[in-house]
Design goal:
It comes from Fusarium torulosum. Belongs to the oxygen-dependent FAD-linked oxidoreductase family. One of its GO terms (molecular function) is FAD binding. This protein is 28% helix and 23% strand. It is an alpha+beta fold.
């Protein structure tokens, strides 16, 4: 089976900074939107959509939707529409193209920039009503709506003691997660989300509804496996599902004195343990209130085994706190409520497993945090997701690395961007020096100025562009088209 990228074993590194939203985003308790000019074409499109979609059409002045990212929260579209079927999406597409109105598509809405999933002055197509999960007769496949969230899907399947290759966070949407690749706590056993999709239902720019699979439109099927939002609007996915009951979840928190011990044990788990039932990642974090660093490790085991022996090495390191729970994947995915108050920035690097580079990453993070440690309400993490050799078997030659960030006040944007660039730039230099660097960039966690598709390899990038032009000859889904947000091939 063809793959968009062919990679080697690596680590997935994610740095996350989160803060609360500053007062400048609100005025007397009323949400303040950025000033936006709406084109006459979009005004006409919203008028036509209001006639056809009635209560499923929302104007900003009467809309109370909450977005995951504060910058997208501040965006003012011309209107937001909630289709209930693929036919609805096709009709919306026809109206938008006819009126030359820009748009964006929201699945879960976990992207980070205006126009990614909330259109600046255009129409936001919100797929939240496309959230059904329909099982096949033999319970081996499920048709999943493009707007379904991680928790909705887990919950629907868990009633039948089934699961799928889903994400770690409850409100992430099926669409963006899967089209970007989709790493999962179950990836060691089953690969990434894209490795488990049999077919896609896609609305093309000409409003046609097509199926993409190995047998129907196989080029488009190949391109959607990591190609992002460059080809059309995916309204449903036919996904593999499998028997799955409760799983083990363990966590350990260590003082900074034991960070190196944790790194050594993590390196062993990354490179020497070949257990497909295991999922593992760790985070190095800065606590602003206490002005100190700690490390936390998180383990998952797909069998309901209390304290699996594979994690015994972590338990032998002196820890400040720990937990051991048997629960559902759905419950493990639950985070706090979305408030629309956090500014997020992700950036990523891929490298071969290297203890020296892991140490260097923490050294860089620790040094560079000094430049942003006084950012109001700062909470900062450097998170590392490994890919064991078992993942490569399940994914058929795939592995990655990542960093991501988040904060609150617009006044701190420049400092936070510079911070992220220094950390990731320093890690890239170190990775090159150590011979551990890999050019792949995981789309779902990439920074907006990173060249994602060059990391797929030149042959693959060119083929993706050819397919994009063949299914979208008028460039509706390009950087100069009607949906310009997120990562574009053209």
């Amino acid at each position: 089976m063809l793959r968009v990228v062919s990679l080697v074993s690596g680590l997935l590194t994610k740095a996350v900074l989160a803060t609360t939203l500053g007062d400048s985003w609100y005025a007397n308790g009323t949400r303040a939107f950025s000033s936006t000019t709406v084109s006459s074409g979009c005004q006409q499109a919203c008028t036509e959509l209001a006639v056809e979609f009635s209560v499923a059409l929302h104007y900003p002045s009467a809309d109370n939707i909450t977005w995951w990212d504060a910058r997208q929260q501040a965006v003012q579209p011309a209107c937001r529409v909630e289709p209930s079927s693929s036919a609805d999406v096709a009709r919306i597409m026809a109206i938008l193209v006819a009126n030359e109105c820009r748009f964006a598509v929201k699945c879960g809405g976990h992207s980070r920039s205006p126009d990614d999933s909330n259109s600046v002055g255009g129409v936001t197509i919100d797929l939240q009503r496309l959230n059904k999960v329909t099982l096949s007769a033999n319970n081996t496949r499920a048709t999943i709506g493009g707007g379904a969230t991680t928790y909705q899907i887990y919950s629907a399947l868990e009633r039948f003691n089934l699961s799928f290759v889903g994400g770690r966070v409850d409100t992430v949407g099926m669409g963006g997660f899967t089209l970007g690749g989709g790493t999962s706590p179950l990836s060691s056993k089953y690969g990434w989300a894209l490795d488990n999709i049999f077919e896609y239902e896609v609305i093309l720019a000409n409003s046609s509804i097509v199926t993409a699979s190995e047998h129907q439109n196989p080029d488009l099927y190949w391109a959607l496996r990591g190609g992002g939002n460059n080809f059309g609007v995916v309204t449903s996915f036919l996904s593999r599902v499998f028997p799955q009951g409760p799983v083990y979840g363990g966590s350990w928190v260590f003082s900074d004195d034991y960070t190196d011990k944790m790194l050594e044990e993590s390196q062993r788990l990354f490179t020497s343990v070949d257990d497909p039932d295991m999922g593992y990642w760790y985070a190095y974090s800065y606590n602003q209130l206490q002005d100190r660093f700690t490390t936390s490790a998180t383990g998952r085991y797909v069998e309901p085994v209390s304290n699996p022996p594979v994690f015994d090495g972590l338990s032998r390191i002196p820890f400040e706190s720990s937990s051991s729970v048997i629960d559902s994947l759905g419950n493990f995915s639950v985070r706090g409520p979305i408030t629309g108050t956090v500014r997020h920035l992700f950036t990523t690097i891929t490298y071969y497993p290297s203890l020296a580079l892991s140490r260097k990453g923490i050294e860089l993070f620790k040094d560079e945090i000094q430049s942003v440690k006084n950012v109001s309400g700062l909470s900062a993490f450097l998170i590392v997701y490994p890919m064991q050799t078992s993942v490569l078997r399940a994914m058929k030659e795939r592995g990655v690395t990542l960093i991501s960030l988040g904060w609150s006040n617009a006044a701190d944007d420049t400092a936070m961007n510079a911070f992220s660039d220094r950390v990731i730039g320093g890690m890239k230099t170190a990775a090159l020096d150590l011979g551990a660097y890999h050019p792949y960039i995981y789309l779902n966690y990439a920074k907006s100025d990173q060249d994602v598709f060059s990391g797929y390899g030149e042959h693959n990038r060119r083929r993706l562009i050819e397919i994009q032009k063949s299914v979208d000859p008028n460039g509706i889904f390009t950087s100069q088209g009607l949906w310009r947000g997120y990562f574009k091939l053209v």
